[in-house]
Structures are given as structure tokens and as C-alpha cells.
Amino acid sequence: MRFTHRAQAVLVAALWGVNFVVIEVGLRELPPLVLTALRFVAAALPLVFLVPRPTARLRYVIGYGLLLGVCKFGVLFTAIHLGMPAGLASLVLQTQALVSVLLAAVLLGERPSGGQIAGVLTGSAGIALLAAGGGGHATAIGFVLTLVAALCWAVANVVVRASGETRPLSLLAWSSLVPPLPLLGLAGIVDGPKAVLDAVTGLSWTGILAIGYVGYLSTLVGFGLWNRLIAEYSVARVAPFSLLVPVFGIAAARLFLDEPITWTEIMAGAVVLVGLALVMRARTGRKAATAATPDPVDSDARTAAGAALVRAESAGTDLLR
Predict the structure, then answer these.
(1) Concatenated DSSP letters for 251-295?
(2) pLDDT band at residue 191, thresholds of 50, 70 and 90?
């Protein structure tokens, strides 16, 4: 994996870590489902008028929009609204990294290396340690809903990979048209039509800035880069970088929301970094050891002409370079 792409993955983790603080601030202004809906309105407009349609089939575009917008973020925002602290939410959500690798292995036939498995398990152990040290700050319903959101994100990662999309930004923009109406409909049922109307028409500058961050920086920049990396590499190689999100999330929550941080959380964050280092070290070593035999995922010499997934990946790689 190129250094610039690793740097992009770390940048995405930082954007998403701070995003949890912005979500909590935004939820002081707006109901959770309304904030989620406005997030995707911002992500879709005006970008859909500036980018071509996705190359993936319509079912992938709709499925990705529902999984990411309604299922992942609708549930996550509700979890934070119901008492899940921002810093803790940032780490519990990263259980998706392990689930993503497992789902990709089962559904897409991607075989993680031994080093990847060791790295993900090490990083997951760090997340478990973080949860053990700070789990007492969360409500039970908030914790469970965050786990559900993590599962939805893992499935969304697999959908991106399976779609064969060669225009990741187009997929993100056009799929963002899907969540707003279902989310506003659910908000009307949960909060009432008047509450939804009052929230939308009474936006303060704080609410507008929160929507701008979660809609443009977190969604367009964050998921645009994330989907591009998944398209060029694999779910198993990209997903572990999300283990950095709680490191940034907990630090941002401490800095901006004054959420407590303990030595246990600091040590667990270090374990997360070790896990990511194991993933990258194992990958580098494998590439060096197999230089004479091109890797079917990493090399330019993708010769499995009969595999639709590999063909889609090759086309995406050529486009993105």
C-alpha cells in the first residue's frame, strides 16, 4: 500500500474521530434522525450535479445508501442521543473492522493474511480494553445500538467492494440521495412532524456548522477517500485503519467535551496502534517475500480474467491512478 494512501487512510480516521464530537454538539440542536437526514442532503447537493452517475448497478447504489445512511448513521446518531458518549462511541463502532474482514472472507472470497488477522485481533483487543475502561459511561441501549451501527458499516464496506464501482465519489454522492426521505419519515413518526419542521426551520449557526462538517468533511471527504481505497485495495487491507478512529475520537472528546480519559484508555490506544503496525508490517513483508509472484489483489498483473470482482478492481485501479 502506497505511503500516500496510508496517509489518506490516517486522515480519514482523524476526520471521523473528530466527527463524533461534532455529532454530539449537533444533537444539542437537532433530533438524531433529522441531523442524519440533513447530513446526507448536504453530501448529495450540489455534488450530484457535478459528477457522473455511478457505474455500479442501481441496487448497489440504493443498498449502500440505505446501509450507510439509514442503518449505520441513523442508528449511531440515535445511540449518541440516548446516552452513548462520543469518545466511547468512536471505539465501539470500530468493531466493524473485524466484522468487515470476516464478511469479505465469507462473501467475497478475500483471504486475509496471518499478519492481517494478528493485527486486527490485536487492535480489537485494544478496543475491548478501551471499552472495559470506559463502558460504565454508556447506557445499555446506546451501547447496543452502536454495535448494530458497526455491523451495518461492515456490510456497507462489502457492498462497496462487491459493486465494482469505478467512480467512488459518484457512488457516495448519488447514494446520499437515498437516506433523507426515509430518515425524515422515521423522524416524523418518532419525534412528530412539528418537531421535525421546527428543527429544520430553526437552525442555528452551530447546527449549520455541524451539518457542514458531518456532511462535507466527514461524508464527502472521509467516505470519498475511504471508498477509493477500498476500490483500489481490499476491505481486509483498508478496514484496519478505522482502528485509529477511537484514538482520535477519545482525544477530541477529552479536548472539546471534557470527557474523562484514563491511563487504561491511553494504554489501550497504544495497543490499537500496535495492531495497525502489525497489519502493515505483515503486508510489507509478504510483498517483499513474493516479489516474483504478483499478488492478485495488490499487483498490476491481475490475470484472473474470469473473475468479475478482479476485473472491476483492475478497472477501478486504472481510473484512480
Answers:
(1) HHHHHHH-----HHHHHHHHHHHHHHHHHHHHHHHHHHHTTTS--
(2) very high
